[in-house]
Amino acid sequence: MGTRFLPQPILTLVIAGVWMALANDVSLGHAVLGLALGLVIPLVTQAYWPERPRFKNPWRIIDFTLVVLWDIVVSNIQVAQLVLFRRGDSLRSQFVRVPLALTNAEAITILAGTITMTPGTISADLSADGTAILVHCLETDDPDGTVNAIKERYERRLMEIFA
Amino acid sequence: MMAWIAELLIAGLLIVGAFFLLVGSFGLAKLPDMMRRLHAPTKATTLGIGALLIASMLYFLIVLGLFSFHELLITLFLFITAPVTAHLVSKAYLLRHLALRKDLPDVEASGGWATLGQASQDRQRHEP
Amino acid sequence: MIATACVIAFVAISLSLLLNLYRLAVGPHALDRVLALDTMVINSIGLIVVLGIWFGVTIFFEAALLFAMVGFLSTVAFCKYLLRGNVIE
C-alpha cells in the first residue's frame, strides 16, 4: 500500500481532516492546504517510522469502533453505579493476567487502550516480552470470566483486523 | 417544536456530562486505594467531556446556526490520551509500591512484568 | 432552559474541582496528586466548554484544546519522572 511519493495514503487523509477540524472550516482552500500538509508531513517523517502496521481487513475497524464506543457508555454507567452506591472497601478488586495471542505492537497498544476504556478494567502493565497484560479489575467475582470476555470481545476482533 | 426538542437534548447532554464529571471526581475522592481510584477519573471523565462537547456542537449548529466541529478533535484527543495516562500512572504506582507486588499474578516465564523488570535491572546497574 | 442547564453544570463542575483539590491536598502518595491534577485539567476543559456555550462564542475551544495537550504532557512528564527519576534520558 502506498507509493514513493505517497507513502501513507490514509495518514494523508487523516492529516487533511484534522487540519480542517483545527481551522473549523470545510472549504476548498483549507482542503487544499490540508492535503498539501498531508503530502509533505509523511514524506518528511517517513525516516522515523520505517515499519508500519499491516492490515488484513481494515473495514472491520468500523465494527470494532462501534463495539468499543457502546462499551464505553456501558462501562461509564457501571463504574458510576459502583462509585455511588457501594462502599469503597466492599469492592472486590484484584489483578488478573491476560495472556496475549496478538503479536503486533500496534494491536497490543489498541487492546491495552480498549481495556482501560471498557467496563471496570484498567491495563496496568505489560510483561517484559509482551505476551501478557496485567489488568486491574474494579469489581469481579470471576477472574477467568473477565479474561475470557476480553479475549472474546476485543482480541478476536483485533486479530481479524491486523495481519 | 423542533427548537424545543433540540434545547431539551442540549440541556440533557449538558447535565449528563456534568454529572459524569462529578461522579469521576467523587470516585477519586472517595475510593480507598490508588488502583481503585484510578478507575473513576479515567472512565467517568471521558464520557462526561464527550457529552459536554456533543452538547456544545449541537448548540452551535442548531441554536446559533454555526457549523463547528473542532470539538470532535478534543474528544478524539482525550479518548486517545486517557488510557495512556492511566497506564503510566499505574506503572509508576506498581514501581513505587512494594506492598502491592505480592498481589500480582506470576509471569516469570515471560521475563516478569516490564516495569518491575526494569527496576531490578536498575538495581543491578547501581550495585555492581 | 439551556441557561439553567449551564448553571447546573457550572455548579457540578466546580464541586468536582473542589473534590479534586481535596485529593490533591490529602492524597497520601505523590501519584494520587498527579492523578488529581490530571482530573482537574479534564474538569477545567469541561468548564471551558460550558463557558463557551454560556457566552455563545467558539473562540474558547482553542484554549480547551491547548489545555488538553498541556495537561496530558505534564501528566506524562510527572509519571516518567516518578518511574525513572528523569524526564528525558
Overview of the molecule:
The complex is a heterotrimer of chains A (163), B (128) and C (89). Chain A has 163 residues and is mainly α. Chain A has two domains: 9-48, no CATH class; 60-161, no CATH class. Chain A is 56% helix and 11% strand. Chain A has five helices and three strands; from the N terminus they run αααβαββα. Chain A has a three-stranded antiparallel β-sheet. In chain A, α1 (9-23) crosses α2 (28-45) and α4 crosses α5. Chain B has one domain (2-98). Chain B is 77% helix and 0% strand. Chain B has helices at residues 2-30, 34-63, 71-96, 114-126. In chain B, α1 (2-30) runs antiparallel to α2 (34-63). Chain C has a single domain (2-84), classed as Helix Hairpins (Orthogonal Bundle). Chain C has helices spanning 2-26, 30-55, 60-84. In chain C, 40% of the residues are buried. Classes of the chains: A mainly alpha (163), B mainly alpha (128), C mainly alpha (89). Chains B and C meet through α1, α2 and α3 of B and α1, α2 and α3 of C.
Features:
heterotrimer, B: 128 residues, 4 helices, 77% helix, elongated, disordered C terminus, C: Helix Hairpins, flat
Short description:
Chain A is mostly helical and 163 residues long.
Task: Compile the SSE list and pairings.
The complex is a heterotrimer of chains A (163), B (128) and C (89).
Chain A: H1 9-23, H2 28-45, H3 60-85, E1 94-99, H4 105-117, E2 121-126, E3 132-137, H5 143-161
Helix pairs in contact in A: 1-2, 3-5, 4-5
Chain B: H1 2-30, H2 34-63, H3 71-96, H4 114-126
Chain C: H1 2-26, H2 30-55, H3 60-84
Helix pairs in contact in C: 1-2, 2-3
